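Reply to dn_fold:

You asked what the input looked like. This is it:
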Amino acid sequence: GPAAGGRPNGYDIVLSYDAKGDRIPGLRQISETERPIILRIFTDYANGASPLAIASALNNEGVPGPTGGKWNASSLQGDAKAGRGILRNEIYRGVRVWGANTMVKDRRTGKRRTLSGKPAGEVVRSAVPELRIVDDTLWARVQARLSSQAIGPAGENRGVRRPKTLLGGLIRCGECGGVMTRGGSGDHLRCAIRASQGPGSCSNTRTPSYGDIESRVLASVQANLLHPDVVAAAVAEYQAAMAGERRAALQHQAAAARELAEVKRRLARLIAEVEEGMPWKAVADRHAELTARQAQIEAQVAAAAGDANLVQIYPGAAGMFRKMIQDLHDALDEAGDRTSAESREGIRGLVSAVRYFPREKKGQYQLEIAANLAPILQLGDGQPLVQAINSGS
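and this is what came back:
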């Protein structure tokens, strides 16, 4: 009976305890503060308002979203196949659904992902009339409109697609930081934040051509980032940084070696004093202290063994850099090769973000390219650009 998931918008968590003083989990009650918002969303959508218009109005009025941030059209419309989204959540009609979805935490990132749950025949539905916010008539009207607005067999809204292009996902709106995505027909981009949260969330109304932006970015990469002087400066900086790290590591190793030798000498003196007749009780504590310190230093030295294998630019790197840069230049010069997997991987490794700033005159804009030459230090057709140098050599 109790809720096994999170707190949906429109409800409060009930704190209740059993006779032993342990909290009883999974209890919910309707939030009198959020109930009118849920009713408004369902009513406005049933009367013809779009999810974007509803989200935009709520944001303009300063109504906090489900997680305390902005409202999104996607949080209202959700996913038809998975049954997610406020307008599809059956809890609002007094039915609790269990098993439709499963939340799994990624151990590497700590973030949760939603996976498909049990087969449809094994999903459990139970009546919770005390949690009903929307009556059956309003619920039916909303579901009928959702079905009529669905696109594709899965009922998913495919109006905004992730661009599968050279700079896909890298172009961001300079006004709000949102991703610039393709919308509608043609290759024109629009701010995804404005598209999903409404005009009040971003002032950028421009829809630039993706092709134009890609051409400008590639020309800038070719003329500036891959210029021989820029690459030479990057190599020099890398060499200087590696040399500094090598000096610091060697100094640390030398200091550790000196301290370790001193600890061993003191331990040897204590043993000699005991052999000469000093009671063991008089030196036991000091012997334990020095032994622990010796183990600590040796553990630190062992843990830092990987740092001793420092790196420096491979002797043949200069020629390899020239060849790789020439290959990228050739790829940029050949329009047919721009979309090849090899060229795309190389260029996307250099360009980490492109920020779009519209200018006052329509059709004009400024691009800010965030780029990084570090990836080319690790490329090289099977032969490493760096080699391990033993600390003793």
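Confidence is low (pLDDT under 50) at residues 152-163, 308-315, 335-339, 378-393.
Hope that clears it up.
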